[in-house]
Amino acid sequence: PRPPRDLDEPFSIQCRDPAVAAAAPRENATFVMLTRNSERDQARSTIENIERQFNQWFNYPVLFLNNEPWDPEFVRVLNASVSGLATFAVVDKGDWGYPAWMDVDDAKAKIAAQGSEGIYKAGAESYHHMCRFYSGNFYAVEALQKYRWYWRLEPSVEFMCAITYDPFAEMARRGKAYGYTVALWEVPETCPSLFRAVDDFRSDEGMPAAPMWRAMITPSRAPWPIRRLLGWWSTAHRTRGGDRWNYCHYWSNFEIADLDFFRGDAYQALFQHLDRTGGFYSERASPRPPYLPRYPANPSKKLHHFADIGYYHEPFFQCPGNAPGGQLLNVTALGDSAQSSPESPGAIGCRCQCPDGRRRNNRGVCL
Ligand code: GDP
Ligand code: MN
Fold this sequence. Notes:
Layout: H1 18-23, E1 29-34, H2 40-58, E2 62-66, H3 72-81, E3 86-90, H4 104-116, H5 125-135, E4 149-153, H6 167-173, E5 178-180, E6 183-185, H7 194-204, H8 212-217, H9 224-236, E7 248-250, E8 255-258, H10 259-263, H11 265-276, H12 279-282, H13 291-294, E9 303-305, E10 311-313, E11 316-318
Parallel strand pairs: 1-2, 1-4, 2-3, 5-9
Antiparallel strand pairs: 4-8, 5-8, 6-7, 10-11
Helix pairs in contact: 2-3
The chain binds guanosine-5'-diphosphate and manganese (II) ion.
């Protein structure tokens, strides 16, 4: 077959018959949710939602992770909500928290200082532990070792569209390593030295400075004079490659990704470098911002924007337009998601509802 013209075209532009995709073999994949015992109801709401919109047909396993022992009531309730295998694992002590070599009093003082400066979420020690865990040690968790692919979930998220194909299978078939739904601008104060640290790593490793930022700040369809002007501006202000991150980052509460990429020496070396520079505690470095676009050198083919997946994590969402009704298959099998709002022919996405029960206006935009 001919390769797709657009390397990152949506995987699906309409609902399919989920039974057809579900008849194919599963990938070696699992959902993963790191959560606290206290988030039981929120975790259940996510699981019930993803079961209704996707997993009722595919029955992928769900791995719940906690840094503390599981509350038996959490295990009971969530076991009852998952259609596939549910596993409840506790993260090893050594994989959670400060690295052994770190001066913990100094780190705590830095966290307190970030809190008193009012930097969003940066005053909570546990938030830093969570970010460090997801950046590096997550991939070493014993219960994950048998899997190649994961789909990250969080409590209280919502998928607004039926997902009637297997995203893992499409990722594998198209050679993708990292899939996201939402990318947005990070608050600069949360990670003032992150990109410099990444760029130091890049140059230490002898990797070329990829002009990725240019693609990010210059929409490829912008009129030529605007592209030209932005190109000139960025050259004129050139000091060092690493100082020009525009703070665009993947919102990593949703991810579908290839664990082998993160387990690989190259990514782990980057994590070690960031860990040694102390960034997970001296600032609120969140796990994903700049290094995926930067690394490996030509990543664009490996990345995928799931434009067809409706997703809501408070306060932001992505809501695809609704697929034309005539192409909707197996409406009854789609359950709730088939009770749909206005349709906009030609739009991508299986039938979607707006997050949180919001309405769509007559142009298909969620209000
Ligand atoms: P945000 O999305 O950046 O606001 O971060 P969250 O507070 O939602 O945390 C991200 C994920 O990590 C969620 O799935 C939380 O349930 C989980 N999480 C955060 N901190 C902890 C923690 O200290 N222990 C456990 N077990 N889970 C945590
Ligand atoms: Mn969250």
